[in-house]
UniProtKB/TrEMBL annotation:
Transmembrane segments annotated in the record for this chain: none
Listed name of the protein: LysR family transcriptional regulator
Keyword Amino-acid biosynthesis: no
One Pfam family cited in the UniProt record for this chain: HTH_1
Family per record: Belongs to the LysR transcriptional regulatory family.
GO annotations of cellular component type: protein-DNA complex
Annotated keywords: DNA-binding, Transcription, Transcription regulation
Length: 302
């Protein structure tokens, strides 16, 4: 049955539910903080709207009818659902529930990503995380198109329109075959290794690496000699172990221990460092993002 008007609101439903519990107009009105006459008017108005009698009144008691029992049962469900809706809205506004779409570059998965995500899930267990691995250029585009909320990425060109926070700076290391003549050294000069065959990701994925080493190449008036191009980091290191060449990796990649591969720091003081930043749109409105930024900042300090 549809009501004839929108006169019945949640306060009226609450009044009916309380009266059903108290079975007494004076006590019910006191609980509700309204006058007895106001409560009586509310009940009468609902009954008129429904065309039903919800309560039988006598001088001594109020008896709820079968129609009233059915109405009160559903009214309580509506009131409970309303409370749930309010709680959900408040929690969502604080970023305690919802969804975070997080992009990341491959290298971030070795250290910063799992550390940050693990901490975030402990503090915000009811937020759903959607993770997406892309290269930095694709992450920039996804942030601009707002298909991602945040991204762990390299600081490449195109970040001017985005907000960023640097989470990690780490030196590059040389990964080379264990039987390479330079493997016996504790540190390797860039000039000694650069003319060897290098195993690297395709250009679209290695843009950042090539750009940060450009000044060092110009200083020594050399160019990288590319021996192989492969997509995956594990494959790159595997080919190093097979003796097909060397590669340059951030220090954290040394966690990928593969037989036949050794890691040595670069001896050059001016050698670049690899940076990982957290980037997000300046127009972001997702409350979950603020909580993630705080967690990421703390995780990066460990």
């Amino acid at each position: 049955m549809r009501l004839k008007s929108n006169a019945v609101n949640l306060n009226y439903l609450l009044s009916i539910a309380v009266l059903a519990e108290e079975r007494h107009f004076v006590r019910a009105a006191a609980r509700l903080g309204i006058s007895q006459s106001a409560l009586t008017q509310q009940v009468q108005r609902i009954e008129r709207e429904l065309g039903l009698t919800l309560f039988s009144r006598t001088q001594r008691q109020v008896v709820i009818t079968e129609a009233g029992k059915a109405f009160v049962e559903e009214a309580r469900r509506v009131l409970t659902q309303y409370d749930i809706a309010i709680d959900a809205a408040r929690r969502a506004s604080k970023g305690e529930i919802g969804k975070l779409r997080l992009g990341f570059v491959e290298n971030a998965a070795l250290h910063l990503l799992p550390r940050t995500v693990s901490r975030f899930r402990r503090h915000h267990p009811h937020v759903r995380l959607e993770l997406n691995e892309l290269i930095s250029a694709q992450l920039v585009q996804a942030l601009q198109e707002e298909t991602l909320d945040a991204a762990l990425m390299r600081p490449i060109a195109g970040l001017d329109a985005l907000k960023t926070m640097t989470l990690l700076r780490e030196p590059y290391q040389v990964a080379l075959p264990a039987d390479h003549p330079l493997a016996q050294k504790t540190a390797i000069a860039f000039a000694d290794i650069v003319t060897d065959g290098m195993i690297i990701a395709p250009a679209k994925k290695s843009t950042y690496l090539l750009s940060v080493f450009r000044p060092l190449c110009e200083r020594h008036n050399v160019e990288f000699t590319i021996a192989q191009e492969v997509e995956q980091l594990h494959a790159i290191i595997g080919l190093v172990g097979a003796g097909l060449g060397y590669t340059l990796l951030p220090r954290s990649a040394a966690a990928l221990s593969i037989e036949g591969v050794v890691y040595r720091p670069l001896a050059d003081p001016e050698a670049p460092q690899a940076e990982l930043v957290l980037a997000w749109s300046a127009n972001a409105t997702n409350p979950v993002l603020n909580n993630f930024l705080a967690v990421a900042r703390d995780a990066s300090r460990q």
